[in-house]
Every structure is written in C-alpha cells, then in structure tokens.
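User: I've been trying to design a sequence by hand for this structure and keep getting stuck. Would you show me what you'd pick, starting by listing the structure so we're on the same page?

Assistant: Good idea, let's start from the same input. This is the structure you sent:
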C-alpha cells in the first residue's frame, strides 16, 4: 500500500475549482500522495489552464455544452483512476481541514473492515476562509445524513448534528460530495452516468450496501462547502430541457433498482450486488421504498445492526 489518494472532482463552470485544488494541496499532510482526476466542464469564461503545483493529475477537459450532468462527469472522472489505494469524491467548491488525508486513512483503518466507505455532511464555507462549524465554534460537531421524506419515488435526505467521536460511526446513508473509500469500491459499485441528480445518493447507498460495503460517518467534520449557488452557473440553467429528461431517466432507473415499478430497463453493471438484498437494506435503514414509509429510526440515520 502506498496510501495514494485519487481525488475525483467534477467541475461545471465553477470559478472556485482552482481554489479548491489549491486548498486540497495546502491542507494535506502528504500532498505527494495525491492524484487528481478532474472532469472539467469548462465555460467560455475559463481561459486559464489548471495548476496542480507539480502533482500528478489527469484532466478531461470538456466544453460545458457537451456535458450530460454531474453523475456522468463523476463517472468519467473515475475512469481516470489507475492504482491509487483510496478515492475521495468531492465537489469543486470546497475547503478542507488540516491533514485531512492522514485523518481519513486513519479512520478507514479504524473501521477494521476493508469494505468501508466514509462521509459526512459538509458544513458551510464562505470564501476565502470563513468556515462554519456544525454546532458552532465553541462546541463543534459533525453532521450525519438521514432520511427526510419522499418526493415521488425519490427518498430525500437531510442531516442531523452529532457529537464528535473517537472513531467513525455506522450510518444508513451517505453524502456524495464527500465520500472516501478503498479503490475496489470504484469497480464494485461503478458510478452510474445516467443517474442525473435526484436519486444519486440513495441509489449509491443501497448499491454499496448490496455489494457488501458498510457506510460510516466520519468521526468529525472533514470539509466545508459553499452551498449557495449564485456564484456559478448550474447545469439546469444551460440545459433546462435535457435536465428534465435526465431527471425522468434517473427516477425510472431508481424505481427499477428498488423494484417499485417495471420500466423494462437494463441497468447492467450499475445494478445491485449479490452480497445483500434491498430488503435487508430496508430493514437495516428503516425505509420501505415500495410503500414509501420512513421509520423514526431512519429519520436519525442510525441503522439496525442486526441486518448487517
């Protein structure tokens, strides 16, 4: 093991991409172990090349008008992975805690399970350096994803603040803009390029579970995120009609995966695993997809460990 980390970043006309790259490097304890895999969906306003300060990088540079959405871009970026031991899936407008790399690798080994993935709902960041701590600066916390409500067939998520812990905690749900794990996950649970936005996180959680992966909330907050979107162009602004079509495709794929409806779709390699079942996940998480029922336990994100 060389403890190299593959950083998957899908950027869509984002003026903070270079800042995010700089901050990743500046806050890492061992920047020489970082490898960047960037799907750069650039706009006309992005004229300068990206600077990785001499670190290894693999960049797909794609005009924004050729983009097919976030999951499509993340899927392409994962195809840039080679032999790096770990991956970290990120957004392109983020700030990070000091020595995040050392901490994430340490927490991965604390789970004592090679099929572990870790995430944490990221807190607010206001550039250039104002980081908001969950719980406030006097009593910092972390935030775990939890079930919120159904929007049609799609389970939506919120998050709850939790106390900082010594080790990561098992959780039922995950956050896609801050997801860390071993390289094998990239190949066991290949990123579905046709899962546009709605349904992205819950299908990843269920697919990972059925492939035998356990999801953990990191022991503390590891990253900060600019949640407001006014500073950048969104995909749906440039591709309104296509965004609507892709959303419809995503919902049909989700309903097919969870056996909520038969659309005659072939999901192929982006389907479920054979280690566990969707039914086990429903009991584990407390969510009933077909009947659209969310238990009180699911609203905390805390799983029933009897179904692991």
């Amino acid at each position: 093991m060389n403890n190299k980390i593959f950083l998957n970043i899908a950027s869509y006309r984002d003026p903070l991409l270079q800042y995010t790259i700089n901050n990743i490097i500046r806050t890492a304890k061992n920047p020489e172990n970082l490898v960047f895999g960037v799907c750069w969906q650039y706009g006309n306003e992005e004229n300068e090349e990206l600077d990785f300060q001499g670190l290894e990088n693999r960049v797909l540079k794609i005009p924004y008008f050729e983009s097919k959405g976030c999951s499509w871009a993340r899927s392409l970026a994962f195809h840039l992975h080679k032999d790096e031991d770990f991956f970290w899936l990120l957004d392109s407008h983020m700030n990070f805690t000091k020595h995040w790399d050392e901490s994430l690798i340490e927490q991965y080994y604390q789970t004592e399970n090679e099929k572990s993935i870790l995430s944490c709902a990221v807190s607010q960041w206001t550039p250039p350096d104002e980081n908001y701590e969950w719980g406030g600066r006097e009593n910092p916390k972390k935030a775990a994803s939890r079930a919120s409500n159904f929007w049609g067939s799609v389970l939506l998520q919120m998050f709850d603040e939790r106390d900082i812990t010594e080790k990561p905690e098992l959780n039922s749900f995950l956050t896609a803009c801050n997801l860390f794990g071993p390289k094998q996950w990239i190949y066991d649970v290949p990123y579905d390029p046709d899962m546009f936005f709605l349904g992205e996180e819950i299908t990843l959680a269920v697919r990972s579970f059925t492939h035998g992966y356990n999801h953990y909330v990191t022991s503390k907050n590891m990253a900060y995120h600019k949640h407001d979107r006014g500073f950048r162009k969104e995909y749906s602004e440039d591709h309104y009609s296509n965004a609507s079509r892709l959303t419809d495709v995503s919902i049909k794929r989700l309903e097919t995966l969870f056996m909520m409806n038969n659309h005659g779709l072939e999901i192929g390699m982006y389907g479920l695993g054979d280690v566990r079942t969707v039914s086990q996940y429903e009991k584990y998480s407390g969510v009933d997809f077909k009947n659209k029922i969310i238990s009180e336990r699911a609203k905390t994100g805390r799983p029933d460990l009897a179904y692991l």
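That's my pick for every position. To get oriented when you compare it with your attempt: Residues 5-307 form a domain with the Spore Coat Polysaccharide Biosynthesis Protein SpsA; Chain A fold (CATH 3.90.550.10). The chain has a mean pLDDT of 95.
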